[in-house]
Amino acid sequence: MERGQVHYELFVRRQPGSGWSLELATEDRARAVETAEQALADGRVAAVRVTKETLDEETREFRSVTILSKGAPERTKVRKVREDTEPLCVSPSDLYSCHARERIGRLLDNWLLRNKATPFELLHRPDLVEKLEASGIDLQHAIQKIAIPEAQARGIGVHELIRSFQQLAERAIERLLKDHRKGVLPDLDREGFAAAAERLISEPDRAYLLGAGVAASIAPAKTWSEKVGRLLDLADAAPQEPQARAAALQVIEQPLTEILGSRSGLADLLGADLDLGGQLAAMTRLAGADAVEALIGFDTKVSRIMPPLSEPAARLSSWLSGPAFEACRVAIAQRVLRELVGPRRLKPGEAAAEIDLLRGLAMALTAAGDRVLSLDDIHGAFSARSKMLVNSDFVEALLGKEMTAREEVESLIWLAENVTGGANKRQAARYLSANVSALRFEKEMRYGPDSPATRMASLATLQRSVLRAGLVVEDASPIQVKIGEIGGMIEADGKIVAVIAKAPAPVVHRLNLLLRIAIGEAAPMGPAAERARSEAMKLVRNPELREELARSPEAVDKVRGLMQSAGMAA
User: Fold this and answer.
1) Is 455 a residue whose pLDDT tops 70?
2) Cα separation of 535 and 514, whole Å?
């Protein structure tokens, strides 16, 4: 082998995570190895590699063999593999897939809305494709909008991809128009839906052909509700033979799902006068079908938030309660979730009504069970919405400006009870704690116009409500303690326990009043309850009590129950 056909290359990595760079190329093996060892010893590099490069006379390419490798191990970088450089859609039939129709709906959203049509109809109606082709600019803009980002993602030239999509669109349009001219597309009004479905069941393109018939059948409808009604008419006329029926209902489901997935279509079906909360309630009623209807008849709180369904919506609900149109149920349920986690208010200007609505929606969606959504998805959506309920703007809207301090505390307890998620519960507890600790609340409860007994009973109710709000002990206990302290102040101001203990009334009657305070029924747990318990213990030892109980045996059980609740031996 001639000299010069073999040489040695030294590669180094300056840092452990950096790439290899060529440091030296020489025909002297000893020099390459010595330089590598010295660079590593001096700490100038993190790793070294020496390779022997031999020239192949036939291929004129160098064969590389590593003869030295030392230093920090190489960190392998995971490279994003480009799966395919071909466009997602390469033939007209690819445009009819679910994902392609969804993309078409986004790209031509405004054009479809102006023409009251769905992507399904555009792909199956010759009159619509001729109208789109004639407009020119709408189709061209849609192609550009999809081509530019896809070209960047796939590393393909933009103009090349635009030409590819233009050719694809032209082929799809030509196919539909050609089939229309030949009379291949079925006329369901003349042939009948069941007959057409059974005739086409053996055709490879049965979904495309039957879809063209369905699109032509709903074309005369002027509103989305009318389209839904016509689609359900076709569903009612579907064949009974299992294979043909499944194929027919699957075709109907495509435009139905697209209508229900659009904001304008759903608003027209459910009622344009509904706010977002009303729409979500109606959607839940649609998707939940029988389970939600049963809950409406059982729970008045749920029935109050559920708006009535229009005739087409009621018909659709009846269909959704069966095994058909699973994709429709999923589309509606996913729309409910998207709106719940979105930023829009469900009941603008009605914060309290929004809380009631969310409580009812949670009950309805949970009742519908896994058929609509998983419980984890439902919990996640309501946790996200709860985060909005505990922000300062919503709390300010909930409390308003006309509430008394007690009413504000009641509203915040209601808020804390209805939010989900640990962080949201803690935030609600902070608002509640701040209001309960405020001087305004203390003064109103101590010196309000109601009688001391009424004010103490109100505090007892608030204290029990805090316990039911689902707050963690660390958050709830300080609030309950503060309410108890205010109750103790009211009792001390009027010396209520002492007055009851010394009142000129039967011992049993006085004992009952004290025990009701001691158990947190007539006053909050705290200083007042402790004082009442102490006085009750004194009355229990009073000989007159035994005499009165002997004369009124019916009072024995009542006194015994109260004493046991107060933790006193009976």
Assistant:
1) yes
2) 7
Pairing of β 21-26 and β 6-13: antiparallel
Give the model's pLDDT for residue 554: 56
Round to whole Å and give the CA distance between 342 and 263: 14
Beta bridge partners of 7: 53
Tokens of 157: 């030239």
- Does one domain contain both 435 and 521? no
Secondary structure (DSSP) of 380-434: HHHHHHHHHHTSHHHHHHHHTTT--HHHHHHHHHHHHHH--SHHHHHHHHHHHHH
Final residue of a domain: which of 440, 475, 491?
491
CA distance 298 to 363: 12
**Do 23 and 111 reside in the same domain of the chain?**
no
Same domain, 93 and 180: yes
**Cβ atoms within 10 Å of 416's Cβ, excluding its own:** 28
Phi, psi of 282 (to 5 degrees): -65, -40
pLDDT in tens, 306-348: 988 888 898 998 898 888 888 888 888 888 888 898 888 999 8
Rounded to whole angstroms, how far apart are CA atoms 491 and 495? 5
Is 306 a domain residue?
no
Q: How many other C-beta atoms can be found within 10 angstroms of the C-beta atom of residue 564?
A: 13
> Sign (positive/negative) of CA torsion 334, 339, 341, 347?
negative
State the Cα–Cα distance between residues 295 and 532, nearest whole angstrom: 44
108 and 177 housed in the same domain: yes
Encoding tokens for residue 492? 């001390």
Q: Is residue 257 part of a domain?
A: no
Calculate mean pLDDT across residues 422-435. Answer: 94
> Domain end: 427, 460, 491, which one?
491
Indicate the pTM of the whole model.
0.69
d(CA 477, CA 484): 10
Residue 106's domain spans which residues? 86-184
- The verdict on residue 415 lying in a domain is yes
- For residue 80, the model assigns a pLDDT of 46
Half-sphere exposure of 368 (CA within 13 A, CB side): 28
What six digits make up the tokens of 11?
């590669």
Any domain includes 124: yes
